[in-house]
Amino acid sequence: MSTSEVLPQGAGYGVVIGIGLFFSAFMVGLTAMQSRYTGVSPTESEEFSSASRSVKPGLIASGIVSAWTWAATLLQSSAVAYRYGISGPWWYAAGATVQVLLFAQLAAKLKLNAPYAHTWLEIVAARWGTTAHLFFMFFGLATNLIVSSMLVLGGSATVTSLTGMSTIAACFLIPLGVAMNAFHTALTHTTVLFAIILTFMFTVYATSGYIGSISRMHYLLGEVSKISPVAGNAGGSYLTLRSKNGLIFGVINLVGNFATVFEDQAYWQRAIASRPSTTVKAYLIGGLAWFAVPFAFSTTLGLAAVAFSAVPAANSPSQDPLSSNFIPMLAPLSQNAISEGLPASLAAATLLGKSGAAALLIVLFLAVTSATSAELIAVSSILTYDVYVRYINPKATEQQILRMSHAGVAIFALVMGIAGVIFYYIGVSMGWLYTFMGVILGSAVCPIALCITWKKANKVGCILGSLIGFSAGIIAWLVTTSALNQKVINVTTSGGDYEMLAGNLASIGVGAIISTTTSLIWPDDYDFASARAINNRGAAVASRNIDDELEEPEVEKKGLDMSALSATNETELDPVGLNKAFKFAARASIVLTLVLIILIPLPLFFAQTIYSVTGFSVWVIVGIIWTFLSAVAVVIYPLWESRAALRLISRGVIMDIFSPGSGKFVAPSSMKKPVE
To answer: Which GO molecular function annotation, any one, does this entry have (predicted)?
Structure first.
């Protein structure tokens, strides 16, 4: 891949180290401004782990898009577009969106059943005790480790491909750089992400001299289909949803991502940080907005990588792609290169040269750091509240908890780097891990969901379901690998579509059947009282004291948002309102899931339609419109809903400029009284 090293090695180190330092300095500045002009203290553990549970829906949605945009979101989605054509972008996007939509139900139940919990594992401990807590902690930390390893592997492979930077150095520098800035600016990252995606889309489909239009892309994909037809696709075409292997990937994607959403503390973290009254809204907006990221990106660069194999290079003796003398701009990629997620980076470099490679490198690094940041905070919360506070120092002070939170970030950053290097040396790529994650994590999806939402969930049945499902997934995966590959089991043979499909389905299916069946036969009757009591007393007292002592006119005089201060009061935690939110989440998420997974793709799959220029034009234009609407939802909307805070900060800055020292926020005297 030396030909793809269009940027100097220094550019790789500059992006990995320089951008990390820039955002660290940027966040230090923002944190200082927040503390000076709003009175929100970044030195409190509650603010560090859960943003004081008062974040508005637009920013939560932006954070969801930011955290859910992994390296795989950009690289693996483009790889499946390169392999299967237009079915790849759909199945990647739809198969990883529905989990966020369905998670809205769990988020609503979290606010109803355990509104003051810091982690989902605290709820498991309160309901089922220490054994279950430690058992499910394995799945939680395994999820974080696998997701983090994919981030490091995908990011390092692309940086190495484009710049020649040492893969080992990248594996360590990426997480360590993020650790310096664990609370990244999700909104900033999301803004840059959408800007670069739209730049690539308009370049490929409007201005590029190599492609430049939807009709030209359609023609080139048709030419490539004649040269190397796609196995399992209708007519061997890249322009059809009738893709057998694309559908198989879709199922694997669906199962694996249920595990990485339902078991990843990073997603619970945002539900915990959100305001109770708007949690469901945030997850529905975030899920639908995120869909545009892999769909638009892979429809652009994934398909462009395919099309470039039908575009003649400058030194090609023939202009006809079917000629034996034809030399393409981008030669067909090996399976290893595809698994490493290189189609996107090579397409970007081919499309725009150094500027394209630099843009891809920046957007990938932001995606990796954004998601890595979420994983670091998630693991830090587990290590702090589920290990340190629960088992080591139950009477830990505020400062001890905060120090442990910071230490947890540093510890896991080092673990991420080590895990990335280990996987790299044993030949495990990002693509392999992506399809494998459901095999070992899928069995715990249903038991965890039942624990949080269903009073009848049986402790023993859910533990056994997770354990037996885990075993069934591993056995099915290995047996299928052996049967289909003449008893040869290695990284290459075990990564096939059918091998991973068998393991994923066995894991999630067995776990769900056992946990549900045992709960129906031997139902528990849990009232969630102990879950609601988690951290409840201190939060409730603090909220009550603030509400009782702080007069609204005084708040308005200081420019504060009253609803933000009372986000955890009794009105927002009203069971009737939260039950309504849960029912709405259930209806909305199920309907959207049916539309994305059943009603749109399956009729087109069975129709075996190969898109004409008109059909493909609709496909691309819908993607562009969806991307614009998503950008509005997670970039513009969060700024609008935070306008009061932005005015408060702006006023403080202006006052400091004209009268130094006068702009600092001063809390009303009643707020300074200690909470008893």
So the answer is: urea transmembrane transporter activity
